[in-house]
Amino acid sequence: MGKRLTQIATRTGDDGTTGLGDNTRVSKASGRPHAMGDVDELNSHIGLLLCEDLPASVRELLIDIQHQLFNLGGELSIPSFELLKDDALAQLDAALAEYNATLPKLQEFILPAGTRAAAQAHVCRTVARRAERAVVALGEQDAAVRPAPRRYLNRLSDLMFVLARVLNRHRPDGSVGDDVYWLSERLARAQNEPD
């Protein structure tokens, strides 16, 4: 396969437009580049998460997710094209089931906090939700957008929440971690009740 990029600074976007994969040009403010940018930002945040100390299985999963997000972004850049396959969503469903099975039941809402890796997973979760909203908005304007990207981002956000909980329990020093719970009135009452 030949090289796809021969130069980065093309200056063709100086007029406020960007090129899509089908060689059309659209405004950078339009829905398609907006959705593509949110997916790219999500992929970059996952790259940052990969700089942390992670369990090997989580690292392997996140690397594959980065490739799937590149497929998703490519699909968004070429109207009516399919790059994201059904097995990508199945992989997320399997990972959700696997990691959820290892976690205790939630007592209350949790804060996006804890270890740096867990906090970064929460950033990924929120950026995935934003990317999902952008894809939903694009789909409402353009019937060429398949449901697969929207479904993938929805499921990925769920998975990043679960992985944040997993990562709060993964401590390189061997200590035991936990979720950082929101100190709601209900939780405070439950903690103050006699056993």
UniProtKB/TrEMBL annotation:
Entries under Gene3D superfamilies matching the protein: Cobalamin adenosyltransferase-like
GO molecular function, a single term: corrinoid adenosyltransferase activity
UniProt EC number: 2.5.1.-
Highest taxon, organism lineage: Bacteria
Catalytic activity: 2 cob(II)alamin + AH2 + 2 ATP = 2 adenosylcob(III)alamin + 2 triphosphate + A + 2 H(+)
Record flagged with keyword ATP-binding: yes
Annotated stretches, region: Disordered: 1-34
InterPro entries: CblAdoTrfase-like (IPR016030), CblAdoTrfase-like_sf (IPR036451), PduO-typ (IPR029499)
Pfam (any one): Cob_adeno_trans
Top enzyme category: transferase
Ranges where the Cobalamin adenosyltransferase-like domain occurs: 8-166
Signal sequence segment: none
Similarity comment text for this entry: Belongs to the Cob(I)alamin adenosyltransferase family.
PANTHER family documented for this protein: CORRINOID ADENOSYLTRANSFERASE, CORRINOID ADENOSYLTRANSFERASE MMAB
Protein name: Cobalamin adenosyltransferase
Organism expressing this protein natively: Ottowia flava
